[in-house]
Hints:
Blueprint: H1 6-20, H2 25-58
Amino acid sequence: MFRFGTGELLLIFLIILLLFGAAKLPEIARAIGKAIKEFKKAGKDIKEDIEGKEEDKKE
């Protein structure tokens, strides 16, 4: 899997700063944080669902 280095992250941050301006950055960061949190929650729910169905099959 590809991992971003410090240089790449700085370049991406600079491009976002130029596109949206400094005032929008906190709002964008909050939205991204919420999206990541929801994505992780959905993944956890799916995993629990699958594990629950596997336990039902064993019984």
